[in-house]
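Handout for the seminar on molecular recognition.
Each group receives one record of this type.
Step one: identify the two inputs.
Step two: read the structure output and locate the region that could contact flavin mononucleotide.
Step three: write two sentences on what you found, then compare them with the reference statements printed after the record.
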Amino acid sequence: MAAQTSIIPPTPSEEDYAATGERAPIPDMDDPIALFGDWLTAARESEHNDANAMSVATVDPAGMPDVRTVLLKDFGPDGFTFYTNLESAKAAQIAATGKAAILFHWKSMERQVRIRGPVSRTSDEAADAYFASRARISQIGAWASAQSHELVEREALKARVALFTDLFEEDDAIARPPYWGGYVLAPETIEFWQGQAYRLHDRLKYAFSGENAGWTRTRLNP
Ligand SMILES: Cc1cc2nc3c(=O)[nH]c(=O)nc-3n(C[C@H](O)[C@H](O)[C@H](O)COP(=O)(O)O)c2cc1C
């Protein structure tokens, strides 16, 4: 297939930028977690769906980067939490390096947030509580799916869902599978990016300097 540049959206013209105007600059807040909360609140209003979707980047043992979307389920000064299968590719990569980066891109607001840091497991209590809040069929799905491992045919997955559906009594609560849980990324750096006209974007990067010093912030060139 030949290069398909005609399908690529056009680069904005001078007139396009003039019509959009200037966006509000990133506010100069001391606490990046509070700023993130403000942006996520605005994203919930503005985004069509999944404002809490984020890309999680990891590297495999050969140093090859990998990235996939997951849903943010909690955040605060201790970090950013998501839930997944503990025998998945991402889990193996996190186990090997103990590090990851996450990225939010809220297109409707022309905003991006990049966060990097060490990753650890959430408590079992937190994972149990979140698992209990999921729809029953999603809970069964977590039991049935060997995430990231080969599935010879889709019918086999449906058969496993049926098997686990029969196994759990209809009225009983479904326990969290031992191979399913949560990760929390403790932020070392958090960079906020606000798109601006003519690609003269606004960037503010926070770095954590320890409990006593707290967060320092630096504006970056676009
Ligand atoms: C919008 C969206 C949300 C997703 N949320 C999750 C999630 O919260 N947890 C999860 O394990 N996978 C989630 N996925 C699927 C992952 O992107 C990925 O396919 C899966 O986790 C396997 O990744 P891995 O093989 O790199 O471990 C989501 C995908 C999309 C598109």
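Reference statements: The domain at 31-131+181-220 is CATH 2.30.110.10 (Pnp Oxidase; Chain A). The radius of gyration is 21 Å.
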